[in-house]
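Q: For a teaching session next week I want to show students how multiple molecules come together into a single three-dimensional assembly. I've collected the sequence lines for a complex. Could you give me the predicted C-alpha cells for the whole thing so I can convert them for display?
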Amino acid sequence: MSDATLKPVATAAAGAVAFPPEAALAPAAGEPAAAVKTTRSRATLTGRIANGNLIGWVVPALIVVIWETLARAGYLQPNVLPAPSAIVAAAIRLTASGQLPESIGVSTLRALAGFVVGGGIGLALGLANGLSRLSEKLTDTSLQMVRNVPHLALIPLVILWFGIDEGAKLFLVALGVFFPMYINTLHGIRNVDPQLVEMGRIYGMKQGELFWRVILPGALPSIFVGLRYALGIMWLTLIVAETIAAESGIGHMAMQAREFLLVDVVMLSIIIYALLGKAADSIARLLERLSLQWHPAYRK
Amino acid sequence: MAIHTATSRRQAAAAPVYAGAAARPQGGASVTLRGLARAFGDKQVLRHVDLHIPAGQFVAIVGKSGCGKSTLLRLIVGLDQPTGGHIALSGAPGGEEEPGSSGVRIMFQEPRLLPWERVRGNVEVGLGRDLPKAERQAIATRTLEAVALGDRGGEWPSVLSGGQKQRVALARALASGPRLLALDEPLGALDALTRIDMQRLIEKVWREQGFTAILVTHDVGEAIALADRILVIDQGTIAADLVVASPRPRHRGDPELAALEGRIIDALFNDQAAGI
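A: Of course. Below is the structure for the complete assembly, covering every listed component.
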C-alpha cells in the first residue's frame, strides 16, 4: 500500500500522456469498419462501437453473457456465484425497498467528503511545497515519513479514536487520498518547463500572473494524474472501512447480506463499487479532457 | 562611438559605418557596455568588454560555442547579472530601458510558447496586462498579420510547424514595439529554407520598426545576410568588430559577402594568421 502511493503514479503519468484511449484503439478501429461493408446501418454501428467509448464495454458484456449461460446450464451453484439475472433481480428488489439508493447515497457522500478534505489538503500542500523551498524543507520530511505508513494499518487506531462513526471513515479516506494528490501536485509544479517560467519573467509577469498563466497550467496534467489515482484510493479505502466497521452504506449492506447468505446482494455490492469507481474515473477524465484541450494527447 | 580594436577602426574608415541606421526613424535603444565581465566560479566567461551599439543598428555576434556570446546577450537584456562593469540602455527619447520592460525583448532558440494559450493569446503575453482586452486582441491580430500568420490566431501552438512557432514567438516579441530586440540563435533549430524565410522576415520588420537588433548566431552566413556590423567573440573578448557595408536586400552568393564570410571564418579558427 505504501509503495502503491508512489510507484504507480509514475507509470500512470507516463500512461496518461503516451496512451490516450483513441490513439491506442486507432489501428483496431480500421479493420472491422473495412470488413463490414454489407449494410450501411451495420457499418455505422460497427464504426461507432470501434471509434467511441463503447468498445470498452464489449469484453464486460461478453463475460456477462457467458456467465449467464453457464449459470442457466447449471454449471454454477446459485449459492456460490448467482447468475447475472439474479443479481439484477436483487438490484430491482433493493431499489424498490429503498435500501440500495440510500446505501449508494451514504457511501458516495462519505467518499466525496473524505476526498474533498484529503485532496484539498494534498493539493494545497503540494502547491505550497512546489512553490516555496522553505515550506518544502519544513514539511516534506515529515510527510514522507507518514507516507510510508500504510494508511489502512491505522484502522485499529482509528476505531479506538473515532469509534465506527463517520469520522473514522472520513479520516481514513482523507489520509489515503492526500498522498497521491500531494505527490503529483508537487511533481507537476517542479516539472513546469523552466524556460517557460523564464519567458514569463522576461515578459514582465508578476508572481500571481506567472502562477495562473504558466505554473498552474503546466502542472495540471500531473495534478490530474494525482486526481485519478486519488479517486481509486478513495473507493478502496472506503470499501475496506465500510466492510470492517459501518452501520450504513454499501459495505454494510454487503456484510449484512453475508450473514444471511444472500450471495446475490454481496455480488451486487461488489458490482456497484466497480460502477461507482468507473463513474468517478469517467468524470475525472472528462474534466481532464476539458481543461487539457491544448495538450495533443487529449485532443480528439 | 567607442570602438575597440585596431581592426575595427580600419574597417570603419573604409566604409560609412552607421549610414543605414541613421536613415531609419529613431525607434531603437542604444546599448553601452563599460568593462563588462562575467565569471562563473573560476571560469572567466567575459573579460572587460567595452562596446557601444548605436540606436537602430543590427549587430550580429558570432563565435564558437562556449565563447561567451550568449552570456553577453543575456547580460544585455538583464537575464543575468555581470560580475564587473556596467550596462546602459537608453531609448531614443533619452529614457532608460529596463530589462523586463516592454522596451527590451528577447527571442530564444526555442519558441517558448505557452502550449495552453492559443496563438493569439501567446502574442498577447508580449503586451502585458495594462491595455484593455479588446485593444490587446487587436494588436495581437495585427502583429500576427505582420508575420504572415493572421489566419492562425485561434490555433493551439502544438499544431504549428517549427518555423510557424518561431514566427509566433517573433510576433510576441514585436507586439509591444520594443526598442531593443535580442535574438539568441532564434533560427538554429529550423531547416535551411525556413531559416532563409525567417531571415527575410526579421530583416523586414527591423527595417519597418527601426529597433536595435542584437543577433547571436553560429551561422556566419546568417550574420552577414542580416547585420550592419559583426562582432567576433573569442575567449571572452571582442576579437574583431567588422562592418558589413553591402546594400540591402543582400543576395546570397554575392562575391563581396562571400569574401567577408571567408575572413570571418578565418578569424574564428585562426585569428593570428588571418590578420584582420
